[in-house]
Amino acid sequence: MARRTRTADQTNDLVLHDDASRRSSGKGGWLWNQAKPYASPWIVTGGAGLVGCGANVMWGDSPWAGVGLTLASVGLTAATWWAGKMTGPQRRLHSAITVAAGTSWVTAAALSGPLSGPLPDLYLMGGASLALSWNIRKVMRFNDTDTASSDSDKGLLEKVGLARTKLKNVQVEPNRVTVPYELPAGELTNDDVAKAIPRIASALDVPTTAIRVQHDPDSARKGQFVIVPEDMLKTPTVWPGPFAPGESVAVPLRIGVYDDGSDLVLPVLDAIHILIMGMTGSGKTEGALDVLFELLSRKDVVVWLADAAKAGQDFQPLLPAVDWAALDTPSAGAMIAAVQAVIPARTAWLRDHGYRAWEPAAAQKQTSPKHSCASAGACGCPGMPYLVAWMEEAAKLLRDLGDDVFTGIAQEARSAGVSLVVSMQRASGYQLSTDTRASLPAAMCFGVRGDDAGFALPEEVLEAGANPAAWGNKRKGYVYMVSAGVDEDLYANPARTFWTGPSGVYEKAAAWIVQQFAAVRSPIDPVTEGAAARVAGDLFTNRQARAGSPAAPVTPPVLSEEQESVQAVAALVDTEDAALDATAELPAVGHNTEIPAAKPSTEEARELLEEMVSMLASVGPGVVAVKDLKPYLEQIGRDRSWVSKEMKRLAEEGRLAPTGEEGVYRLVPVLAGV
């Protein structure tokens, strides 16, 4: 196969020289360039004639010269046979016969003269025949439609465990060779080809990522090798600017280039939910910036960004263009709860306006009677832009809030015009639930360790040659992308995201995006805004003011004097005494001890607890802690541990939402209506 690639490259060179000769020398030059690759055997034949004539002049009368020439002829023939042991048997035999015939004629011509006896006829007929035989061999090498007869290919395929495999119709492009194959029926399958990729790469002396296999979906033994011998991604491509500035998010996002120079594009509406995975230093953040640059230059998309791990450190220049930036765990928890709440609200709006799924027309003012919630005519409702909820370094959120916090969003948001982006270093089953991972149909996998690629890329893509572990963090920005709307043949092709520049350059580019497209970006719609505000409260309504401070603290609730006093006392209590009721009075000594009031039943205690939770949450940003209920334990008739268990039960029933802090919960609309 290696020789086929070189031959094809020679063909490309021939075509290039052919084009040049047409421009410079006209038809005569074109004919010469066409004939030049076939001239070598004829030049050698002419040289043999000249050597025979010269040898006759020098040694025609010397018997010792005859002995020397005979020995030289035999030695050259033997040397040719020995040197050809690394080639195929056909080429070895052809070469030996040619050398034997040529040296024999030269010896005879030197001893008896080139024009004596049958030597002139042998020279003309034999020399021409040998030269033509080599021309025919070259023609067959250029135009062979079934390379299974290639001796070198057979030897290579036998070495890698694919004996009797047929290769045919080699297609050559700049830095790309496509070789269709057909495996022997009943002996090998496409799975065997996938296993042989490392051995093929070793035989061709290229990296394993340079070879991919595209299986024929209609056959278990047919497909094609795609070989890219030179890594064209070594030099990063500087971000060229927005791909479709001011256009809809329905237009795919251009975020990099493939190794053949074509654009790496991410179709958001087809991808829906995206998993971005890569180890530290693999360029995952650089890829995220490329995606955000594209999103923030579009007219009908709103971005919510949660980054509790780094407090938005990598995205600071872009935060003014982000509708909601949640930069701590409580805010991120509120964002997740808000996304869960807006999904049914957005779905209902789309349904009432005649949309089966979100489309660009839904983001515009509803002036069409076909998309109206009114009984007659257009309703004129404000449009609903697309929503992208970006969870950066999601591993921290999963640790704090549970490994299934994204499951409901991923499963239900498809028809609501909501995309979930989960970015993390390792999407293992210990961090991301299996259900959530299965609900993220698109993936961008940067460099990883070991077998971690299996958490992001489908098995068939890995079998086709995708190997991000070969990069690790040594090839920053290198990525494989799998998504609906992308040609499946490109899944195993490596790509590289754009480089947004060093520190200083990136900040200028981000500032330009923020300012240039401020008037283009859509504000959030009333439906999404209302649903989010009901769940997240002040964390959402004051989101723009909080975005300027990466570590903005949660706005404290307005407490009564009694509550402030209780919290001040609670702060002074040791941890081991936290379960004790510090507000309880000591019973009186003697016979005048009062009989305590009857203890509420379980149902009554639960009703009282819900009332207290609703009351406490209403005076703050929609959150309540177990310790806040300490002054009311006597009224409820239960201890602190019972209250803690009941609040966990309410959270499991979906009536409270965990915030990530131990014992602190957020009110949801169901309980808010109590």
From TrEMBL:
Which key words are in the record?
ATP-binding, Membrane, Nucleotide-binding, Transmembrane, Transmembrane helix
> InterPro entries per the record?
FtsK/SpoIIIE/SftA (IPR050206), FtsK_dom (IPR002543), P-loop_NTPase (IPR027417)
Listed transmembrane segments: 64-84, 96-115
Residue ranges occupied by any FtsK domain in the UniProt entry: 261-455
Stored Gene3D superfamilies: P-loop containing nucleotide triphosphate hydrolases
- Name the positions where ATP binds: 278-285
Renumbered to this chain, region (Disordered) spans: 1-28
PANTHER family, alphabetized: DNA TRANSLOCASE FTSK (PTHR22683:SF41), SPORULATION PROTEIN RELATED (PTHR22683)
Name of this chain's protein: Plasmid transfer protein TraB
Task: Name the encoding gene, please.
Answer: traB
